[in-house]
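Quick one:
INPUT:
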């Protein structure tokens, strides 16, 4: 035994029961890092080069049983146990080690307060050191802390690990391991076996019932003792592979009976995929049909837009269970009658679908309702076509003369004056005659309304003939300021090359 190993044996107290198994070594009595020394710049340990070697140090601390957080605080966990090792496993996989509290909560299933407790224990044990401490700024995103995975000095002393500082100008925490004492090799091998397997949350009783009796006993025993279980439950039977089980599995190998080998055909151990999953289609259950019908209804009916699909699925559950489609619902709503004004779509749908599955209880009745709905849709479409055709004919056809005799006389005189002016005739005299006739035949209110309607129709077609046929004062008195101003705008626009007027 070397001098380093002898000194380590003197400093190490009597071993205590391990958290993982009874063969782990105990740590030195003093293994606590105060808060002021939990930064990388003031840390006494060295940085772990990889997560595997760091997990060896974590299992060494966990196996000692001497580090109890209740010595230094009055709240939190009582010991450095399997839960702390599970948190450390998540940290060992991060590069850089910059975990968020929400990430660790999601990965481990612990509460936020528990994650903070175990991170504090790793820092107090000298396994973590702050590089950057996270902050929370009001109104901004929270910044995660960045840690350095550290190996305590006590670990190197207890196992006889020799370290060397390759760069004299570098900090002390950058020193690397250069060798190990002979007495610490056996313990290092045990720690390597623990670091290679994954500690996970103990199984519940319901999940353990599905496994065999042997695996149930092993899971319960591991849960009671806090022993980490292997990630994969497969039994390795090849000696060349490195297994995680301490016992040999050669005696557990079983062979099939001769009756199974008589035909020379053995079943494949790999499970066959079902035809439904292989084709990409899966049979929809009752809840799935309800949600499918609800989604189609919110897309087809305008007054259901924005409604919750889950609420519509609950409202239409009876018709969905009866095998109705969205077309069947549309046919029933046509027979039932839809409201013109809808305040709450789900409530109206519940009232309209009340008793629908009992009235249209056969596919033939639903088909008849669909035919009636489609016939009404076709009739409404034809009616809209006729309305559009009549509107287009009214706008694009010839101008209709006013029904009032006085207005017709005034319009005819205006047109005659325009024709005479175009032919170079007596425009001024005809204008005077037209003025005399207009004064003699003063139109009534109804006639003025009809004349303004006719002028408005011309303006819609881009024409200003009726308004410009009279002098500006009389046009302003008869047609009003709005129509005259609109006529002026049309004439100004007609002289621009950027505007074009045509009939609709």
């Amino acid at each position: 035994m070397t001098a380093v190993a002898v000194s380590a044996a003197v400093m190490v107290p009597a071993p205590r029961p391990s958290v993982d198994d009874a063969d782990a070594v105990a740590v030195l009595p003093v293994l606590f890092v105060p808060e002021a020394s939990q930064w990388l710049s003031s840390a006494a340990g060295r940085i772990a080069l990889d997560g595997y070697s760091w997990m060896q140090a974590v299992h060494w601390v966990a196996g000692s049983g001497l580090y109890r957080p209740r010595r230094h605080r009055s709240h939190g966990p009582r010991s450095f146990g399997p839960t702390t090792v599970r948190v450390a496993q998540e940290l060992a996989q991060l590069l850089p080690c910059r975990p968020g509290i929400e990430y660790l909560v999601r990965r481990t299933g612990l509460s936020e307060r528990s994650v903070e407790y175990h991170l504090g224990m790793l820092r107090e044990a000298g396994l973590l050191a702050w590089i950057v401490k996270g902050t929370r700024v009001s109104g901004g995103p929270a910044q995660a802390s960045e840690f350095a995975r550290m190996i305590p000095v006590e670990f190197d002393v207890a196992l006889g690990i020799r370290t060397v500082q390759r760069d004299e100008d570098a900090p002390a925490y950058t020193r690397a391991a250069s060798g190990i004492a002979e007495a610490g090799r056996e313990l290092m091998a045990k720690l390597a076996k623990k670091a290679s397997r994954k500690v996970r949350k103990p199984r519940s009783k319901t999940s353990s019932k599905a496994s065999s009796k042997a695996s149930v006993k092993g899971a319960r025993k591991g849960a009671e003792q806090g022993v980490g279980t292997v990630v994969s439950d497969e039994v390795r039977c090849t000696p060349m592979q490195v297994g995680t089980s301490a016992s040999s599995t050669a005696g557990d190998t079983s062979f099939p009976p001769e009756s199974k080998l008589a035909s020379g055909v053995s079943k494949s151990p790999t499970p066959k995929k079902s035809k439904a999953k292989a084709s990409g289609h899966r049979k929809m259950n009752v809840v799935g049909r309800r949600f499918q019908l609800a989604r189609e209804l919110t897309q087809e009916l305008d007054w259901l837009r924005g409604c919750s699909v889950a609420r519509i699925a609950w409202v239409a559950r009876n018709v969905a269970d009866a095998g109705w489609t969205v077309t069947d619902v549309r046919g029933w709503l046509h027979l039932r009658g839809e409201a013109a004004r809808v305040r709450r779509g789900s409530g109206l749908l519940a009232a309209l679908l009340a008793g629908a599955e009992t009235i249209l209880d056969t596919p033939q009745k639903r088909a008849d309702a669909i035919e009636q709905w489609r016939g009404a849709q076709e009739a409404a479409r034809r009616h809209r076509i006729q309305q559009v055709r009549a509107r287009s004919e009214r706008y694009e056809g010839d101008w209709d003369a006013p029904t009032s005799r006085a207005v017709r006389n005034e319009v005819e005189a205006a047109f005659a004056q325009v024709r005479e002016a175009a032919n170079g005739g007596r425009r001024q005299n005809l204008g005077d005659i037209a003025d005399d006739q207009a004064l003699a035949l003063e139109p009534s209110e109804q006639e003025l309304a009809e004349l303004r309607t006719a002028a408005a129709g011309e303006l819609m077609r881009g024409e200003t003939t009726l308004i410009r046929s009279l002098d500006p004062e009389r046009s302003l008195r008869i047609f009003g300021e709005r129509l005259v101003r609109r006529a002026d705008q049309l004439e100004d626009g007609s002289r621009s090359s950027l505007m074009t007027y045509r009939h609709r």
